[in-house]
Amino acid sequence: MGIVVLTMKASVIEMFLVLLVTGIQSNQEMMKKMKRPKFTVPQISCDVRAGKITNVEFIVKCPPGCQDPRYHVYGADVYASYSSVCGAAVHSGVLDNSGGKILVRKVAGQSGYKGSYSNGVQSLSLPRWRESFVVSGETARADQSPPVPGTAAQPVTVTQAPGTTAIEAAHTTLPKPSPSAGSTASGLRPQPAGQRSKDLGEPALWKPESVLLDAGFVPKEELSTQSLEPASQGDPSCKVDLSFLIDGSSSIGKRRFRIQKQFLTDVAQTLDIGPAGPLMGVVQYGDNPATQFNLKTHMNSQDVKAAIEKISQRGGLSNAGRAISFVTKNFFSKFNGNRGGAPNVAVVMVDGWPTDKVEEASRLARESGVNIFFITIEGASENEKQYMLEPNFANKAVCRTNGFYSLTVQNWFSLHKTVQPLVKRVCDTDRLACSKTCLNSADIGFVIDGSSSVGTSNFRTVLQFVANLSREFEISDTDTRIGAMQYTYEQRLEFGFDEYSTKSDVLNAIKRVGYWSGGTSTGAAIHYALEQLFKKSKPNKRKLMILITDGRSYDDIRIPAMLAHHKGVITYAIGVAWAAQDELDIVATHPARDHAFFVDEFDNLYKVVPKVIQNICTEFNSQPRN
Asked: What are phi and psi of 607, to 5 degrees?
């Protein structure tokens, strides 16, 4: 009996030991599973900039389509933190346009970043920037790859936001991706009742203002990340000098005026305002216009929005024409922040219709290189049109009557729908036809040698040269205008600046010029051109004289050449065959190397055309546009 009891006790003890060992093994397996959480690589959008992420090193997943030029990249190999993370990855060749995972490492700022074209992405140049980053393709799964050598011991910390306590800041330490730093389902924030939970198998889209959740860190709502980068320099793809002419007349009322201000705020928010991008100023008009703030007053969207909020209504009539004239003469000046190299855009907002005429003021604005847009809100009904001072005023005001520059809004409560279309058009600098350029802002007078030494055949070659040059310019009554005269001992005006306003008419007029024959009095020809051609030049036009001759002048050229220079006429001297180089240098504007050209025979004149155009544009681009 005792033996049986002992045997039963031994069996019980044996079963207990087996259960104990089995339990320990199961517990160890569970601990292993708990210690090996799945690492989820966060997905970011193409427009996320490296400076918005405070981690020194991180792995992210880029979506397809980041080769798009709207995602700006600055530099090559080493990129400014103002760059799109994913755009830089495509530029560097780490990713193609289909997206994927990348490893990003922050490095010190550079004294300059040089742009280049690579892998379908055109990166831009940028001056000194305080922070840089490099991209690599070491994107193996974070739960299988070791931490980056030399960095595993360094935690990544979100910059402590103003007003954050030391205890809150202590919770923002993020370990770098490593085998022991993963995210688990238990680390997720609880979903509010009635809200659909996200599929945990899909990577969440990371927002620019959030930190990377690659270590199971749960951010507190009261804690905000602080960007390491300086304030935005503006969107360089929308570099325009923009003036809003807002209607402050009494008829608009306080409520509509507030809607108008909200519209300006929305535009400022949409535009990335900054010194390298668009700049914005506001002029309010009633009886008379007044500048609320100019182009150089505010250098970012936030400050512009704050300034708009402070604008109070002036009252009075709705004298939009007077406001356009004011903007042309005063607003777009260097003193007020006009940058010269940026297109000038004026957006005129009017409630109903103006109480003065806009046609003449708008014509002067166009000739000064101002691109006028017109937004008409609650325009005149058929019964009200009898009260309009100037019918069809919008078409008389805008830069071009092709519909691009005019926007009509049925009522004030629909005005907000115009924000995106307007911003898109204003930033489309290739279509801003009224901007002054080297090809659309001059009065060009050709002074043609018709002496006997030229001959009939060579004279036709000279006319072809004149036509080839004219063909390069944008010709209209408000753009570049062409005039021509011929000289021997005497002078003859072939056609003046105001005679032809289309390119085809100018080219046909050149073809009709007849060969004269005679002597060569170049000095008298220059004097005649100043009196008969350039005296009728518009004051806001650049005056260009292009003189073509094949021999030495019989009269003095020094005094007429000095007089041309004194009157602000830029002279290009083209010599052929027997022309004297010393005379060409005297006639040409200083420096002569940029304004005097010589070819040994008439058939080589065509070679000079691109050189002359290049020098005209180089000289123009070195001067302020207005």
From this structure: -70, -20
